[in-house]
């Protein structure tokens, strides 16, 4: 099976289909329905033309108010998708990890600590809930994104992959694809500009750490979930409100 996953866009980074993976019991996640990316504030007209042709009807924007204000998403003419967002702040990773001008090692440790709380962040949980509600109730393709499309987005996507029965190795592979998808140098340069504008001179190694992902981050999030709830499914039911019937509905929609 030929898999075309990453779209080579110019101003929208980390834009990719997170379907296509095989699932437990047979079948695959349907392609062309589940998209993820970084923010669209620097999208070119050509990028927007590609996005328009995907037929995306729902956009789940995991950014907080200040992030959306700082970099409003560009839209193509006639854009009519519904955009879901949280009226408040949802960030916590880069803000805290970069605030003290850390070394790369310190930033890496901070990112791992912060992932330990990502599943329980009071301002992010409501958006994860809205993400899963939208996937259950809305037809057509959807897009989920944050600033870089790697932490908040990566966590949300990993949860859905778990529900759909994607193998843990593929869940991790999709998460780590952030590190190689698209124009990495341009994505890092864009992130560096924003981070340095807010926090001052931060060295290149630290910037690359802040703009990348590592297995230990997602593993830390999942370990914290298991510590608090015993299993991923218990967390999904207790915190996200995703019971067995809701999970069955998602599998019926997105597995072919």
Automatic annotation (TrEMBL):
Residues 122-159 form the Tyrosine specific protein phosphatases domain. GO terms for molecular function: phosphoprotein phosphatase activity. It holds the Pfam family Y_phosphatase3. Gene3D superfamilies: Protein tyrosine phosphatase superfamily. It comes from the Bacteria. Signal peptide: none annotated. Belongs to the protein-tyrosine phosphatase family. This is Protein-tyrosine-phosphatase. It comes from Novosphingobium arvoryzae.
């Amino acid at each position: 099976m030929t898999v075309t996953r990453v779209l080579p866009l110019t101003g929208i980074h980390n834009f990719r289909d997170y379907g296509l993976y095989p699932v437990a019991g047979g079948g695959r996640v349907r392609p062309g329905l589940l998209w993820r990316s970084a923010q669209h504030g620097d999208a070119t007209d050509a990028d927007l033309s590609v996005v328009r042709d995907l037929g995306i009807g729902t956009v789940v924007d995991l950014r907080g108010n200040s992030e959306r204000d700082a970099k409003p998403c560009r839209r193509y003419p006639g854009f009519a998708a519904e955009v879901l967002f949280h009226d408040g702040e949802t960030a916590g990773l880069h803000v805290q990890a970069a605030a003290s001008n850390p070394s790369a090692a310190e930033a890496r440790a901070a990112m791992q600590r912060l992932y330990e709380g990502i599943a329980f962040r009071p301002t992010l949980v409501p958006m994860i809930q809205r993400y899963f509600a939208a996937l259950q109730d809305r037809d057509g393709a959807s897009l989920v994104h944050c600033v870089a499309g790697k932490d908040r987005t990566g966590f949300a996507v990993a949860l859905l992959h778990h529900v759909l029965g994607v193998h843990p190795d593929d869940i991790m592979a999709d998460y780590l694809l952030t590190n190689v998808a698209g124009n990495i140098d341009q994505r890092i340069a864009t992130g560096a500009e924003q981070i340095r504008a807010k926090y001052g001179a931060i060295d290149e190694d630290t910037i690359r750490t802040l703009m990348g992902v590592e297995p230990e981050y997602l593993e830390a999030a999942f370990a914290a979930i298991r510590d608090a709830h015993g299993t991923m499914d218990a967390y999904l039911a207790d915190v996200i409100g995703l019971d067995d019937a809701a999970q069955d509905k998602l599998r019926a929609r997105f597995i072919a």
